[in-house]
Design goal:
By secondary structure, this protein is mostly beta strands. It has one domain: Metal Binding Protein, Guanine Nucleotide Exchange Factor, Chain A. The chain is 4% helix and 32% strand. It has 1 helix and 12 strands. The strands form 3 sheets. Strands 6-7-8-9-4-3-10 form a 7-stranded mixed beta sheet. Strand 6 and strand 7 form a beta hairpin. It is globular, with a radius of gyration of 16 Å. The N and C termini lie far apart (45 Å). The N terminus is likely disordered. It binds zinc ion (2 copies).
Length: 160
């Protein structure tokens, strides 16, 4: 099936029962796949994500680092702050991933880069303290002022 396109036969087969998720940049030069359940999927409203994407919100999927493979050209990397690097396609500029050295077992992948972004299942909104006043999302998911570790959800659903 096309989801396996680009997999080398030397790579280990995905675990039974876990689908292969694929994605690519706008021009298609950089492609990736992962064959593990995401640890989480979160909508982030922080200013760094906003600037990195030039978009009001970023939807991130935390993937085990060992499960993620780039399957065509490699992306380029930008060190956006200490210990952080963000990848993007060096040809078309699409932002793709986020890595933090304090999270060595995770790579965060942008849901918008998936072949099927509709399949992403966001669980919450984080950093809503930095959410733009003119941008809202009509779901009933919990909203956290900063990260989920920084305190309880401040509400569920959009601002009234
Ligand atoms: Zn590209
Ligand atoms: Zn963010």
């Amino acid at each position: 099936m096309c989801a396996r396109r680009g997999r080398s036969s030397s790579w280990p087969a995905p675990e039974k029962g876990i689908d292969v998720t694929t994605g690519h940049c706008l021009c298609g030069a950089v492609t990736f796949s992962y064959d593990a359940e995401p640890k989480w999927t979160l909508n982030c409203h922080c200013e760094s994500c906003r600037r990195a994407l030039s978009a009001p919100m970023a939807t991130w999927i935390s993937v085990p680092r060992s499960a993620l493979r780039f399957t065509a050209a490699m992306p380029d990397y930008y060190a956006s702050s200490t210990g952080v690097r963000r990848s993007f396609c060096g040809k078309c500029g699409s932002p793709l991933t986020y890595e933090h050295e304090q999270l060595p077992d995770e790579v965060h992948v942008l849901a918008g880069a998936l072949s099927d972004p509709a399949a992403a299942r966001p669980q919450a909104h984080i950093f809503v303290a930095e959410q733009l006043p003119w941008f809202e999302v009509a779901d009933d998911l919990p909203r956290y002022e900063e990260t989920r570790a920084d305190g309880p959800a401040i509400r569920r659903g959009p601002r009234k």
